[in-house]
Amino acid sequence: MVRTSAPEDAYTAEPFLPERGGIPALRKAAAECRGCPLHRDATQTVFGAGSKDARVMLVGEQPGDREDRQGKPFVGPAGKLLDRALAEAGIDPSEAYVTNAVKHFKFTQAEPRKRRIHKAPTLREMTACGPWLAAELAVVEPELIVVLGATAGKALLGSSFRVTQVRGTVLEEEIHGRPERLVPTVHPSSVLRSDDREAAYRGLVSDLKVAADALS
């Protein structure tokens, strides 16, 4: 008898992508993704949300605990802070498309019923999930990508990416075969963890104003 490996052992979402269709078809297919082991412990796939005609796409790291339970991106405290910062910078949050580089929540848990602690995805896991992000970019075709934090930056721009070196600047790079403009900034969750939350928040708004100017 020939033993076949589980699909997650291949570390690629490619076989799970639909042959055609827009965001609804992608979201439905992603719900069945077994392209890496992260699906085993997560509650569900958390796919991107927003208009397929959005001018700006915001890319974060991965869903958090609240997102994993609700099945929607950026619905927790970091998402609420991001919406406030976007509005203050002059970008209507309802007109943006929001997603994550990784679509399943990765966490550690000391024991059942204890709080689930976020754990950063590996480069291998980000690469496995890359086809979903590439498909979202191909459908939405945003004028600008806002990169939220180091993990999203590594997923889009490679492992040498350092958010502190390029935040608040407009980059022009080829991403998944398409020329894109990107503005990197910190992830809103880092603002919530900051010792000086007000200064960190002002820095986020300042970066997002660069993005707003790039869209005008």
Q: How would you describe the overall organization of this protein?
A:
- The model has no long low-confidence stretch (mean pLDDT 94).
- Strand 3 (107-108) and strand 4 (117-118) form a beta hairpin.
- The N and C termini lie far apart (62 Å).
- The protein is α/β, with parallel strands linked by helices.
- The longest helix is centred in the C-terminal third of the chain and has 19 residues, at 197-215.
- The chain has 8 helices and 7 strands; from the N terminus they run H-E-H-H-E-E-E-H-E-H-H-E-E-H-H.
Shape: globular
Rounded to an integer, what's the Rg over CA atoms? 17 Å
Strand content: 5-15%
Number of strands: 7
Taking the alpha carbons of the first and last residues, their distance comes to 62 Å
Helix/strand/pairing category? alpha/beta
Order of helices and strands: HEHHEEEHEHHEEHH
Would you tell me the overall average pLDDT? 94
Major sheet details: 5 strands, mixed
Unreliable sequence segments: none
Number of contiguous helices:
8
Spatial strand arrangement across the major sheet: 2-1-5-7-6
Portion in helices: 25-40%
List the helices and strands and how they pair.
Blueprint: H1 23-30, E1 56-60, H2 65-70, H3 77-89, E2 97-100, E3 107-108, E4 117-118, H4 123-140, E5 144-148, H5 150-157, H6 163-166, E6 171-175, E7 178-185, H7 188-193, H8 197-215
Parallel strand pairs: 1-2, 1-5, 5-7
Antiparallel strand pairs: 3-4, 6-7
Brief digest:
The protein is an alpha/beta fold and 216 residues long. The chain contains eight helices and seven strands; from the N terminus they run H-E-H-H-E-E-E-H-E-H-H-E-E-H-H.
